[in-house]
Specification:
alpha/beta; eleven-stranded mixed β-sheet
Length: about 450
């Protein structure tokens, strides 16, 4: 690995000066040198926000991705550092008052828990509707929302190399066990998969499973090579590591071991899909991320990319078209543009659905067909993944054209339906059926699912 770094340096392309992972959290916020250039009030605001919403960033992000001459508008700064607007004024002032009078940690944490409970910590019925059962037992740390796909939250992977300010899984990181999805019981995962032959895809998610050492990955994944898991065709890995710590695949001690594991899975006949989270083109700009991408692709892994549309970070069609073009150039497959979920600091990051569709349409028009694999804007809502397909006028009424990409009932998928056009709506729950209909076609069945889940 040292030889690899030296080769790049001779070419004038240092992979990265940061090969030792060093992280800063809420307690070490003031230890970040660049933060000292901010005013005392700005640093105070960050501390207040970070006592409610999770904060974690590493030296690679700080020194190689953030443009410190463009603070606070720099998109990667907005992506990783606490911002004043992330809490509503009433909640911010209450927490700020505790900090100003030097309240102890227990009092600050108690108020933080109250505020967090109001931020819809588990949207779309994740705790009530998605946790599967086996032999009369809830399988905590797993979700099975769609017939073909099981999500697994490995306990060693329930953190990230850095945290995203917009993250819809922020509740995983605030130290409240009641809000956390996690499991270290690989055996239960394997038994559940063996019993459910309709499942073709396993998604390891978090947090970020790629914070785990390769030996932990092997414990979860190598048993899946057994013939009884022949129905399991695809292993997906949801990760932000290419953006926040590409060293994981290049200079980390077990980088080669991880890549050999990928090769072994693929040689066994499994499809391995790396679900990469890139929110802005700058995250793909460093030599080390390009080297990490090359090494992953050389194993046969397919890298698919996804991101929500986020105000202050990428709410611009030019940003998205640049993002997709660069991804295609690097051999990545654009997959999803999501709508910011209704949780956490949504009010700060959300974009109205009408504007989201305009950005998506304008961006798609600027790229070739190879980048038009991306689907969106897509809402991962309670009933399923709902895509805005267009805006049109039918019978004199302006409407959103919608469809399910995925649904709790597979029969809902690909069925078009219509909602009244609303310039203020930011989520599926804000929309009303068009043409005088009382409900959307799926609502009665979905409401019955919710009643059944809560009655058990």
């Amino acid at each position: 690995m040292t030889e690899l770094i030296s080769i790049h340096r001779r070419r004038g392309e240092p992979l990265s000066e940061f090969t030792q992972f060093r992280v800063f959290n809420e307690q070490r916020l003031n230890a970040i040198p660049q933060i000292q250039n901010l005013s005392e009030e700005e640093r105070f605001q960050m501390r207040v926000i970070a006592s409610v919403l999770p904060f974690r960033v590493n030296e690679y992000v700080i020194n190689e991705l953030i443009d410190w001459s463009n603070i606070p508008d720099d998109p990667i700064f907005q992506l990783t550092f606490p911002q004043r607007g992330m809490l509503l004024d009433e909640d911010y002032e209450a927490m700020a008052a505790l900090h100003r009078r030097g309240a102890d940690r227990a009092e600050i944490q108690a108020l933080a828990r109250e505020i967090q409970a109001r931020l819809n910590p588990h949207p779309a019925g994740q705790q009530e509707l998605n946790v599967p059962m086996m032999d009369g037992e809830r399988l905590e740390g797993m979700q099975h929302k769609y017939r073909e796909t099981v999500l697994f939250f490995p306990s060693p992977g329930q953190t990230c190399h850095s945290y995203c300010t917009f993250c819809f899984r922020w509740a995983q990181f605030v130290g409240n066990k009641e809000l956390r999805f996690a499991s270290n019981e690989a055996g239960k995962l394997h038994r559940y998969l063996a019993k459910n032959e309709d499942v073709t895809d396993l998604l390891l998610t978090g947090g970020d499973p790629l914070v785990m050492k390769s030996k932990h990955f092997e414990n979860y994944l190598l048993p899946l090579l057994d013939p009884r898991f022949q129905h399991l065709q695809t292993i997906r890995i949801g990760s932000k590591s290419l953006s926040y710590w590409p060293q994981r695949f290049v200079t980390d001690d077990d980088a080669d071991a991880l890549l050999r594991l990928f090769e072994r899975l693929i040689q066994s006949g499994k499809h391995v899909a790396f679900m990469a989270h890139f929110n802005h083109p700058r995250e793909m700009s460093t030599p080390i991320v390009r080297e990490a991408i090359r090494r992953i692709r050389d194993t046969g892994v397919v890298i698919r990319t996804q991101s929500p549309l986020i105000r202050h970070i990428n709410d611009d069609a030019n940003v998205w078209s640049d993002l997709w073009r660069e991804q295609v150039r690097l051999g990545l497959v654009p997959y999803y543009m999501f709508v910011e979920r209704d949780t956490g600091a949504k009010h700060y990051f959300e974009v109205p659905l009408a504007r989201a569709y305009e950005i998506y349409r304008d961006a798609v028009q600027r790229v070739s067909g190879l980048a038009r694999t991306v689907r969106g804007p897509s809402m991962s809502a309670g009933p399923g993944k709902v895509e805005i397909q267009g805006v049109t006028e039918i019978g004199g009424e302006k409407v959103f054209v919608l469809r399910f990409i995925q649904g709790r009932n597979p029969d809902w998928v690909q069925r078009p339906f219509f909602a009244k056009y609303d310039t203020a709506a930011t989520w599926l729950d804000d929309l009303k059926p068009a043409f005088g209909e009382a409900k959307f076609f799926y609502q009665d069945e979905f409401e019955a699912m919710c009643r059944e889940a809560t009655s058990n």
